[in-house]
Write a structure and sequence with these properties.
about 290 residues; alpha/beta; Rossmann fold; N-(1-d-carboxylethyl)-l-norvaline Dehydrogenase, domain 2; 2 domains; 7-stranded mixed beta sheet; about 10% strand; oxidoreductase
C-alpha cells in the first residue's frame, strides 16, 4: 500500500525504512529537505492516490495540532490520519471530531521501540473505528515485531495513546527500581563489582528484562556512570499517568514516586532537604552542613 509519513526524525526515519522493507511505498515529508520525499504537506498529499493514509510523527502539542489542521484542509472524505506521536489521549477525541466533520478518519497509535525499532520492530497500541484501522492494518503489520504479539487494537479513539502513556509510566517505575538498586550496590563497601552483578541478573532471574540489558550496556560504556550528570528529564507522559490515576482514583505509589524522583534530580541543593536538615537540627540537635 501507499503511506504518507510526516516527520522523519529518529523514530519516523527508521519507521519509513522498515515499512519500505516490507514492500510498501512510503512518501515522507520533513522540514529537513535532505531527508524529505516531498516539498510540502500539499505536495505529499498530491503524490498519494486516494483513499490516502497519512501517518503523523511530529512532537505532541502545537506541532501535531497544526499538522492535523493543515491535513484537514488538504485531504478528502475517506482518507485517514494516524497520529503516531506521543500526544495526550485527551487530544485524540478532539482531532477525531475535527476530521470527522469532513468525513476523514482518525486513528491514534502509541508507538514503542525507540532507536531499536528498525531491526526489532515497534510495539503498537492503536485506537479508533474498525473501518479506519482496517485501512492502516498493512502498515501496522509491517512495523510490529515478528511473531504473534506486539500489536493491538486497544479500543476507541484515545485508547492507543492512553495505553502508551501507561506503558511509559510503568517504564518510569522500572527504571527507578534499577537505578535505586544500582546506587545501593555502589554504596556497599563489601561489593566489588556492581557491573558484573547486573550482568549476572540477565539470565535466570525474575528481574531480567530489556531494560536490564540496556543498563548493562551503559555500564560497559562507563562502569560507574562517572561521565553522566544525575539529571533526568520527564517527557510528560509520566505526569499524565499520575493525573489519570487521580481522575480514576487508582493508587499508583511506585509510578508517582518515580516521577517525583525525576524532579528531585534537577535540584543541586534541594530546598526541601534544607528544611528537613533544619528541623532535625531543631528537634534533635543533629548536625547540619553549611553551604
Amino acid at each position: 500500500m501507499e503511506l504518507g509519513l510526516v516527520g522523519l526524525g529518529k523514530m519516523g526515519g527508521n519507521m519509513r525504512e522498515r515499512i519500505r522493507r516490507a514492500g510498501h511505498t512510503v512518501i515522507g515529508f520533513d522540514r529537513n529537505p535532505d531527508v524529505s520525499d516531498a516539498d510540502s504537506l500539499a505536495d505529499l498529499v498530491g503524490k498519494l492516490k486516494g483513499p490516502r493514509v497519512i501517518w503523523v510523527m511530529v512532537p505532541a502539542g502545537a506541532a501535531t495540532q497544526s499538522t492535523i489542521d493543515e491535513l484537514g484542509e488538504l485531504l478528502e472524505p475517506g482518507d485517514v490520519v494516524v497520529d503516531g506521536g506521543n500526544s495526550r489521549w485527551t487530544d485524540d477525541e478532539k482531532h477525531a471530531a475535527e476530521l470527522g466533520v469532513k468525513e476523514i478518519g482518525f486513528v491514534d497509535c502509541g508507538v514503542s521501540g525507540g532507536v531499536w525499532g528498525l531491526e526489532n520492530g515497534y510495539a503498537l497500541m492503536y485506537g479508533g473505528e474498525a473501518k479506519n484501522i482496517e485501512k492502516v492494518q498493512p502498515v501496522f503489520d509491517a512495523l510490529k515485531p515478528e511473531g504473534t504479539f506486539g500489536s493491538v487494537h486497544a479500543g476507541k479513539v484515545g485508547a492507543g495513546h492512553f495505553s502508551k502513556m501507561v506503558h511509559n509510566g510503568i517504564e518510569y517505575a522500572m527504571m527507578q527500581a534499577y537505578a535505586e538498586g544500582w546506587e545501593l550496590l555502589e554504596a556497599a563497601g563489601s561489593v566489588t563489582d556492581v557491573r558484573e552483578i547486573f550482568r549476572s541478573w540477565q539470565e535466570g532471574t525474575v528481574i531480567r528484562s530489556w531494560l536490564l540489558d540496556l543498563a548493562v550496556n551503559a555500564l560497559d560504556e562507563d562502569e560507574h556512570l562517572q561521565q553522566l550528570r544525575g539529571i533526568a528529564a520527564d517527557s510528560g507522559e509520566g505526569r499524565w499517568t499520575v493525573e489519570a490515576a487521580i481522575d480514576h482514583a487508582v493508587p499508583l505509589p511506585a509510578i508517582t514516586a518515580s516521577l517525583f524522583a525525576r524532579f528531585s534530580s534537577r535540584q543541586d541543593d534541594s530546598p526541601q532537604m534544607k528544611m528537613i536538615a533544619a528541623l532535625r537540627n531543631q528537634f534533635g540537635g543533629h548536625a547540619v552542613e553549611k553551604s
